Amino acid sequence: MVSCDSSAGRAAFKRALDERKDFKTSEPPMRRPLVRLIGVSKDLSDARVLEALRAQNKNLTDGLEHEELEMRVVRRTRGRTSIMHNIIVELGPKIWQRLCDQRVRVGYQVVNVVDQSPVVQCFKCMGYGHTARICRAEERCGHCGGAHETRSCPPASKSAPPSCCHCKGNAGGDAAHPAYWDICPERQRWDRIARQSVQYC
User: Which top-rank group of organisms is this from (predicted)?
Assistant: First the structure.
């Protein structure tokens, strides 16, 4: 599988390969968008969360066909407190457009819904496009860029300002942020690439 920085680059690459008879090209199917529900009670099951999104938020779901309301919980992440989770949900483009940046009812709660980046980051090497489970690269710390796990970062390094392992070598680039920072230039570049394969409308 090959990824390109832009749709123009992808089209040029595809044309070049199509000219050769020994290559067969195809584009992967578009993926569905993701949202993050922030601060949902851990007690609610995935099925209950999805049912609540559909049933308790009629103002956002009215007029949509049954297949446009299809959604699935992808994963849960730690919330701000031990009794809350953030829930990542994959859904269709129309319901994504209606839910993003809204407050929704889930059980007895009202929670914020935000767009979730489709980019995948490895927390072993801090690289993009793969996970730690399949990573063969050297370990790199997300805080200081050293050759150790982020959670094992020495106290001396933790008290120092962060240093992004992606931005350190870039001339004139600001590396004073962790490698997992949402607005790291390298992460934003990978985010743009990942979003090209998501169907938002």
Answer: Eukaryota
Distance in angstroms (rounded) separating the CA atoms of residues 102 and 94 = 14
Radius of gyration over every alpha carbon of the chain, rounded to an integer in angstroms: 20
Give the span between the Cα atoms of 55 and 83, in whole angstroms: 24
- In this structure, how many other beta carbons lie within 10 angstroms of the beta carbon of residue 12? 12
Do 190 and 129 touch, CB atoms closer than 8 A? yes
Domains belonging to the chain, first-starting first, are: 34-116 (3.30.70), 120-194 (no CATH)
Query: Tens digits of per-residue pLDDT, 87-108?
Result: 999 999 999 999 999 999 999 9
Secondary structure (3-state) at 22: coil
Q: In whole angstroms, give the CA distance from residue 70 to residue 60.
A: 14
Amino acid identity, residue 105?
Answer: R
Cα–Cα distance between 176 and 144 in angstroms, integer? Answer: 9
* Model pLDDT for residues 111-142, shown as the tens digit of each residue: 999 999 999 999 999 999 899 999 999 999 99
State pTM to two decimals: 0.78
Cβ proximity of 40 and 86 under 8 Å: yes
Query: CB neighbours (10 Å) of residue 14?
Result: 16
